[in-house]
Amino acid sequence: MSGGGVRTVRVRIAGRVQGVGYRYWTERVAGELELSGWVRNRRDGTVEAVFSGAPDDVAQMLERCRDGPAAAQVTSVDVAHEALRPPPGFAMRPTA
Length: 96
Description:
By secondary structure, this protein is α+β, with helices and mostly antiparallel strands. The protein has helices at 22-32, 55-65, and strands spanning 7-16, 36-41, 47-53, 73-81, 90-92. The chain has a domain at 16-79: Alpha-Beta Plaits (2-Layer Sandwich), CATH 3.30.70.
């Protein structure tokens, strides 16, 4: 991890983000950045995730979410502060 402290955010990613491998891509990239958290599809067609880790690494993840995997077409990434830190590791959760 780089940077000081821990930043935790909840994000909602909209666009063509389901059926294009976005969750698998998120899990892989979050692992590369050593982030904790989770990702899941939402019934409204968005992808929701929580990222927790070094502030610089979380910022890099958010920047990468704006593009996503090659087949995705991201129209927005909404970011909110998350008060609770997830347990260590990164998980894929069921659709909510």
